[in-house]
Amino acid sequence: MGMMPTPDAPLGEKAMIEAAEKALADIAAVRQAVSKVIFGQEQVVENTLLAILSSGHALLVGVPGLAKTKLVNTLGTVLGLDASRIQFTPDLMPSDILGTEVMDQDENGRRSFRFVKGPVFAQLLMADEINRASPRTQSALLQSMQEYQVTIAGRPYDLPSPFHVLATQNPLEQEGTYPLPEAQLDRFLLQVDVGYPELAAERQILLETTGINEQRAVGVVNAERLVEIQKLIRQMPVSDSVVDGILSLVRSARPGHGNTETDKTVSWGPGPRAGQALMLCARARALYEGRLAPSLDDVHALAEPVLQHRMALTFAARAEGMSVRDVIAGLVKRARG
C-alpha cells in the first residue's frame, strides 16, 4: 500500500484532487495501451474497464469470434493482473473451477489432504461461454464472485485481491445452453454488448493481425495501483443532483412506481444493486473521460449496461417486438427531459 497513514482515511479536498489527477493520467495511459491492440470497440473497452475500475465483474455478450478473449488477455497485461481462463462446457464440474483436495502420503505412510487451487484463483478470470455449463457449476463461480472466497470441505480459502470475473455469453439461442438465473445476472456490475466491428476497425484488424508483426500489449499499472484507483473512485464525491438522477432513473424502471409506460412494458425491474452500480460506474466513467466529478450524462450513458440484465419485459411488450434496450432508451429520454 505504500506509506499511507490509514488505508481508508478519507482524503482532504486538495489531496483528493491530486490523487484524482494522477488516476486520470494512469487511466488515460491504460486506454492508450489497450487501443494499440484492440481496434475499434471503444464502447466495449470502456464499459469493461469501468466494471474493473469500479471493483466489479462484467458479462460480455456477443457472438463468438469478436475478440472477447483477446480483450481479456490484453486487459490482464495492461493492468498487471494475473489472468486465467476457463472454457465452460456442459460436463464442467464445480471442482474444475474451484480446485480439489488431493491425498498426499509422506515417507512414513502418513496421509494428509492438500488443497490444489483451481483456475478461479486469479486476479482476472475469463469465464468463457458461461451459459454452457450446468446451473450447479455456474453457481459455484457466482458464489465465489459474491463472497471473494471458496469453501472446500468446510474450509474457506480467500481469492486473490483484486478479483474480477469477465464472463462471456453467446446471445444466440444455441443448443445446449443454460441461461443464467436473474439473481445471478445481478452479480454482474455491467452487461457489455459486443457487436461486430465498424468498417474502418475491421480493415485495421485485417491489416494488423495477419502480418508478421502483431502489436503486443504492454503493462501500464500493477494490481496494487489498480486497487488504489478503485479505492479512490469509492471516495469521489457525488453531487445530490446526480444521486437524485440515479434514484429516479432506477425507480422509473420498476413497475408499480407510477410510470404508466413501465407498468405496460416491464414485468420486473432493477433492484437496489442497479443504483449502487450507477453510483460507482458514474465516478469511474468521469475519470475515464478525463473529468474529476460525475455528471447526469454519466448516469444516462451507463443506463443500458447497468439496467439491461436487471429487468425483463412483459409478454405484451415482447409481442410488440420491443427490446429491453428500447425501454431503457425511452426512460433515459424522459429523464433527459
UniProtKB/TrEMBL annotation:
<dbReference type="GO" id="GO:0016887">
    <property type="term" value="F:ATP hydrolysis activity"/>
</dbReference>
<keyword id="KW-0547">Nucleotide-binding</keyword>
<dbReference type="Pfam" id="PF07726">
    <property type="entry name" value="AAA_3"/>
</dbReference>
<dbReference type="InterPro" id="IPR050764">
    <property type="entry name" value="CbbQ/NirQ/NorQ/GpvN"/>
</dbReference>
<keyword id="KW-0067">ATP-binding</keyword>
<dbReference type="InterPro" id="IPR041628">
    <property type="entry name" value="ChlI/MoxR_AAA_lid"/>
</dbReference>
<dbReference type="GO" id="GO:0005524">
    <property type="term" value="F:ATP binding"/>
</dbReference>
<dbReference type="InterPro" id="IPR027417">
    <property type="entry name" value="P-loop_NTPase"/>
</dbReference>
<feature type="domain" description="ChlI/MoxR AAA lid">
    <location>
        <begin position="260"/>
        <end position="328"/>
    </location>
</feature>
<feature type="domain" description="ATPase AAA-3">
    <location>
        <begin position="57"/>
        <end position="190"/>
    </location>
</feature>
<dbReference type="Pfam" id="PF17863">
    <property type="entry name" value="AAA_lid_2"/>
</dbReference>
<dbReference type="InterPro" id="IPR011703">
    <property type="entry name" value="ATPase_AAA-3"/>
</dbReference>
<protein>
    <submittedName>
        <fullName>ATPase AAA</fullName>
    </submittedName>
</protein>
<comment type="similarity">
    <text>Belongs to the MoxR family.</text>
</comment>
